[in-house]
Amino acid sequence: MTAFRYKALNSDGKLVNGVLEGDSERAVRVQLRGRQLRPVEVSTAAARASERWQLNLPILRRRLGAAEIALITRQLATLVASALPLDECLQAVAEQTRKSSTKALLLQVRSKVAEGYTLASSMSQFPGAFGDMYRAMVHAGEQAGQLAPVLEQLADYTENRQHTAQKLQMAMIYPLVLVAVAIAVVAALMVFVVPELVGIFAHTQKDLPALTVALIGTSDFLRDYGLGLLLILVAAVVAFRYLLRDPGRRRRWHGLLLRIPLIRGLLVSIDTARFSSTLSILMASGVPLLDALRIAGAVMSNLVLQDSSRAVAVRVQEGSSLNRALAQEPFFPPMMVHMVGSGEASGDLETMLARSANNQERELEMTLGTVMGLFEPLMVVFMGGLVLAIVLAILLPIFDLNTMVR
Fold first, then answer.
1. What is the pLDDT of residues 196-239, one digit of tens each?
2. Spatial distance between the Cα atoms of 331 and 355, rounded to a whole number of angstroms
3. What is the mean pLDDT of the chain?
4. Residues in contact with 179: Cβ distance below 8 Å, sequence separation at least 6, in sequence order
5. What does the pLDDT average to over 325-354?
6. What span, in angstroms and rounded, lies between the C-alpha atoms of 80 and 267?
7. Which of 331-340's residues contact partners 24+ apart within 8 Å by CB, and which partners?
8. Which residue, among 384, 396, 398, has the nearest Cα to 214 in the 3D structure?
9. For the stretch 351-362, what's the b/e string if a residue is b when 16 or more beta carbons lie within 10 angstroms of its beta carbon?
10. Whose CA is closest to 306, among 334, 330, 271?
């Protein structure tokens, strides 16, 4: 059976749409009439689903969200563990999905499975929705006959990744809001309040304090050119993001970030923790080491670190042990290298990689906590200094008002 998208008119004359499975377009139209719907358009979902999930433009490329794919994977693991046929499992998961686009995607995967394809090869038709790591683990689980446990591991991994990302986002919300409010308050003071207060001093015959002159000049500049400056900044950000689409420029930018001490530590911790946890779960699922290294390296967001991971894979392919290959790269933490060496010696590499990832994530949380703990009072002090400068610039001429009148 094939999935079809439809548009139809209900009894109230309203246009409704959705996805149905049928042997043919005619059979779907019969189903719609049986539901008291008048078919307007019926088309195969495959072409539209492929267009939706495999777009090459980064901005338009659609992906399943981490929460959505974790839920789908968890449901599929539970159903597969209950010994239901795989196509029925996919059908059940599709029926429980509310989003029509996701439902169409799952029904297309189910159609491929019903035709005799493996689940991994069926998912490979939609690389934008199911990444390399996801498909590699599913393939390994199918080959080993352990698809349900592998899907459970995938669901746990996806949920943990989502939880880590949420913690990072939550840690950044407060300082970003604080910075935005600070900029807005200072801009409002300079554009609307300061001109009214210092206007009385602008036409005096006496020399104004340097701080007051600077405040008046800054206020005038922001009033006259503030909007243009804002547009220039927005255009600069857009142009910068456009330039970074080029891999060479993006690699140079990533290399520059790795030369900044504090940012280097954060980026390396995030990416190496991601590398360790991905490599651990891939190897635990039976994926060969070289394939696991390739996929785990692609998960890293920094291109320079990706190059390092590829260099590690090359050395391992040439016969080097994993810990020696990692030790020759400057970015992988020494603790991670030692734990990998212990795992290789004890034959429990997957567990040691998982522990290394957990250690790095804890260190990252502690580092972020320290940075945020320092940033907040520094931001308050900075804002207090700006407000003090504005107040002094206004009060200094007032203190000297008697002299100015004479």
1. 766 666 565 567 778 877 887 888 888 888 888 889 999 999 99
2. 18
3. 80
4. 379
5. 87
6. 38
7. 331/258, 331/268, 331/272, 331/304, 331/305, 332/272, 332/308, 333/268, 333/269, 333/272, 333/360, 335/359, 336/272, 336/276, 336/360
8. 396
9. bbbbbbbebbbe
10. 271
